[in-house]
# Entry
Amino acid sequence: MNDKARTVSRVLFFCVLSGIVVVALSVGVLWLKMNRDDRVARVEIQKRLEAIRNAGQPLTAQDLAKLYPDPPPEHDAVLLLKQALAALVIPRDSTNLPFFGGKSWPKGTAPLEKAMLDEMQTWTEKNQKVFDTVSVEQLTGAWIGCSYSNGFTNLVHAPLSEISQLVKLLCLNAVLQAELQHPKEAIQSLQKALAIGNAWRNDMPIHGFVKLATQRWICSTLDRVLNRTAIADSDLMSTSASLTLTNLGTTKEFIINERCFGLSQASQLQSLAKQATGHTFSLVRVLLKSYQARIIYRDQDLLNYLESIERCLATVDLPLSNTIPAILNIKRDSEKFWEKRHVNFLNTFKKERISLLSISESQIDMNLLSEADDITQIHVTRAALAVERWRLAHNSNVPNSLAELVPDYLSAVPIDPFDEQPLRYKKLAHGYVVYSIGSDFTDDGGKEKPADAKDSDHYDITFTVDR
# Structure
């Protein structure tokens, strides 16, 4: 090898060696910074957990077990519904049945299409014995448990799908009975659906939102029933009292309870990270295993998770007029985070990184907006039930305003959660509409949501009676 070649080799060797040293030093600096961040995070985590305890909020499965005890057998809604659920005959992929894949029933007083009516008759007849086994008296005060006392890995899962299908079939039966001008039977069917829906609690997020969905289905059914038949005053009053979800709070409870799951997951990840380090005498393997452990869990990940939960809780405590813009900002920030972050070597060292905990962070945007819509629908439905009671006492005439219902039928005019103003009311040529401005914060005069509504469309949250 000539002198020139030796010189080139030495230069290349020096460059490679320099590069290795620079990379090693850079990684070392990043590693030290990561360790410092995690030390700071551990101290802050303890402060946050202590603040949560002082606020009386749950942190563990045992805490949740105290808040949500399991029902005794005589009040266990799943046991009380066991016979009904065993005999349930569920429609599959219907083209005519609302709630089961078919189109919605027509608005207002328009009669049902024959194909829809015939299919409703078929499936309600198949399930009539099922309906008869559901007892409102037995279900009153009953609830569905999930056994938090067994820990998060041994929760008891209720037959959620079957119970939801039973509620939907009871709603269909109510519409059918109203169509046949059997108002008492229609309300009895709805009261059974309400009794089942009220057995769900907010102990698990899915339970709380199933309860909301149940009351939403019942409000939709009531809209149809009141357009087709007149209901007795006592039944209107008891049905209104059974629509119990009138205040926002399900999403907040969901976030608080979900945090317990996140803390449990963090503990498991921390344990896995310790196991990943193992025992080895090879320096290279020690470094690789330490890196693997940091991929699985970092204290900074848990701090980021707790901070995210706190931002969510602060947001849901705002009035909806402030909450919705705040939610949209959180959603945009989240989208930017996921767009910019990629899983790579350097991701491990970042304070804000994609981790197993960040993947499980609560997404409150759609949850809270959905809850707000459902709660508002209950508000307008209860107002409409009060209007119907007023009509019974005034020769089928409708009031000029909701204020006329106070105090005999309403303690006060219900408030629209979206702008904290009284619900809107408008007399129609036949009947009336009670409505909320909805999440677009625009009064559209009681415009109903179209079946093919787009995100950009404007409409209100309505209850319209055309008779």
Observations:
- The chain is about 60% helix and 5% strand.
- The beta strands are 415-416, 421-422, 424-427, 432-436, 461-465.
